[in-house]
Write a structure and sequence with these properties.
With 309 residues, this protein is mostly helical. It has 2 domains: 154 residues, no CATH class; 117 residues. It is 85% helix and 0% strand. The chain is built from 11 helices and no strands. Helix 2 runs antiparallel to helix 3, helix 3 packs antiparallel against helix 6 and helix 8 packs antiparallel against helix 10. About 3% of the residues have low confidence.
Length: 309
């Protein structure tokens, strides 16, 4: 009997993950907030370094008195970068501990439950849901939920700050940034849902594959397979399942390449528009060169953290 996965809202998923996480790694629950603060701090430190140099050149300031501030900014960038790397390692292992807890609880539930109850449809449905959240490898498992949420929030806050900063150049810059980000987000979400649908279509295929594979290695049937000369038939069934799986993977990969290409084109158009407004603002005297450098590096850092997240 086939089982169907329940659909939960984002906040239901968040509450469920929090309940599973708080006893194993309470610090992991604070990762989204820590990621936001680290991303903003690292972006600010990275952007302020070239901006400060341009400010000194514009005002004919000597580098000697200001060298200490440049050293401090350099140390800050290195320290924040190291902190972010350590945080990524920590949250990776903390999330794996949560996943291990779910594996153990799932196994213990099957061991202590009466055999007749394990045959019920409700139990199979719960197992299907548990497998979806614990074992899936498409970015939806419990050990990737909080890390991906943290990266997403860090990127979102950075883009929001960039949008606010760009208002000083031109309101059209902010409109362009928001519009391009929304279009890219819609494409990414649509791609994720389509990939999930395509992977769901393979459940029956993989069920058949595991059946034929188990039959071919089962000592009770392997002799019959050879005795009645059905090796080609069995091998054909296995190859047919694998061929269907490869076809779906190729479709997913090809669409992902197309979506990535479209997003890159959108980013190119976005950079062309906002940097055009920024250069025009410099020549018109609405902003100085230091602010242009600040905005230019801020935009590049925001794009980097967005792709990274």
């Amino acid at each position: 009997m086939s089982t169907k996965k329940n659909e939960y809202t984002f906040f239901q998923n968040l509450q469920w993950v929090y309940q599973q996480t708080k006893d194993v790694s309470p610090m992991l629950c604070w990762m989204p907030l820590i990621q936001i603060l680290l991303t903003l701090a690292l972006t600010a430190a990275t952007v302020l370094s070239p901006t400060f140099v341009v400010f000194l050149l514009e005002n004919n300031q000597s580098f000697s008195p200001s060298l200490l501030w440049l050293v401090v900014l350099g140390i800050a960038v290195g320290t924040l970068g190291l902190s972010q790397s350590l945080m990524h390692n920590f949250r990776y292992w903390a999330a794996l501990k949560v996943r291990l807890k779910m594996d153990v609880l799932s196994g213990l539930a099957g061991v202590h439950m009466p055999y007749e109850q394990t045959l019920s449809h409700q139990w199979k449905l719960e197992r299907a849901n548990a497998g979806w959240y614990v074992y899936t490898d498409d970015g939806g498992a419990i050990d990737s939920f909080i890390p991906q949420l943290a990266d997403f929030l860090g990127s979102a806050v950075t883009i929001a700050v960039l949008t606010a900063v760009s208002v000083l150049i031109s309101p059209w810059c902010s409109i362009t940034i928001v519009t391009c980000c929304l279009i890219s987000a819609v494409l990414i979400v649509g791609m994720s849902r389509w990939r999930r649908t395509m992977q769901d279509s393979l459940e029956e295929v993989w069920t058949q594959y595991y059946y034929w594979e188990s039959v071919s290695f089962d000592t009770r049937y392997s002799q019959d397979i050879r005795l009645f000369d059905v090796q080609k038939y069995t091998a054909g069934k296995i190859q047919e399942c694998l061929h269907k799986s490869v076809e779906v993977d190729e479709k997913i990969t090809n669409r992902k390449i197309c979506i990535d290409a479209i997003i890159k084109i959108i980013d190119f158009i976005r950079n062309l528009i906002i940097l055009g407004f920024a250069v025009s603002a410099v020549f018109d005297g609405r902003i100085d060169l230091a602010y242009f450098i600040f905005f230019f590096f801020f935009d590049n850092c925001a794009q980097f953290f967005t792709y990274f997240g």
